[in-house]
Specification:
The protein has a single domain, classed as Rossmann fold, CATH 3.40.50.300. The protein is an alpha/beta fold. The relative contact order is 0.24. Helices cover 39% and strands 19% of the residues. A seven-stranded mixed beta sheet has the order 2-3-4-5-1-6-7. It is globular.
Length: 185
């Protein structure tokens, strides 16, 4: 059975930076599209990374998808809730748009999902370094959202600590190994 990997965390913990390592280490990537749900597909990994990743952009991943993408994601997942047409590839999603209780619960209802939550002690500095305009109120809301998801999952998730540059590669390898543990890669 393919893997579904969901990566979340408050803004500026390095979620997108970790996921970009897939693009840096594997190629080629083809465009994936299911209605408003966009992503990138790599045949070697048999992996669809949901979201839009463009070189040099600070905000990528599912943050770049339409605000109305949730129903299309739900339909995409439910389309493969059938033994006659099982999901054919691994799926990775990161970012605020689809990292929510509804998405995680839906995926869990039809297949297994591995949830990773990225944490860092350097978020304040990263907000300054990337010159973003995310308000304290917005950031606090995202922190609360992630905390609520953690409580909802009852410790059925893995924390990825992303404090140092070396952690980016370490966390990428954890995600890659999660994919490779599956015979679908």
């Amino acid at each position: 059975m393919p893997n579904i990997i969901a990566i979340g965390g408050q803004p500026a913990v390095g979620k997108t930076t970790i996921v970009r390592q897939f693009f840096n280490n594997f190629s080629p990537w083809k465009v994936f599209k299911f209605k408003k749900l966009y992503g990138h597909y790599n045949e070697e990994l048999n992996l669809v990374i949901l979201g839009v990743y463009s070189a040099g952009e600070t905000f990528s991943g599912t943050d770049k998808l339409s605000m109305s993408v949730q129903p299309d994601f739900d339909e995409f997942i439910m389309k493969y809730n059938d033994k006659l047409s099982p999901l054919k590839y691994n799926v990775l999603l990161e970012g605020d748009r689809l990292f929510n209780k509804k998405s995680i619960d839906l995926v869990n209802s039809v297949m297994a999902v591995e949830v990773f939550i990225v944490e860092s002690v350097h978020t304040h500095k990263r907000h300054i370094d990337r010159n973003d305009s995310q308000s304290e109120k917005f950031i606090k809301g995202r922190v609360t959202k992630v905390d609520n998801i953690k409580k909802h999952l009852l410790d059925d998730y893995t924390i990825l600590i992303n404090n140092e540059d070396a952690d980016i590669d370490k966390n990428f390898k954890i995600l890659l190994n999660t994919l490779r543990e599956n015979k679908n890669v």
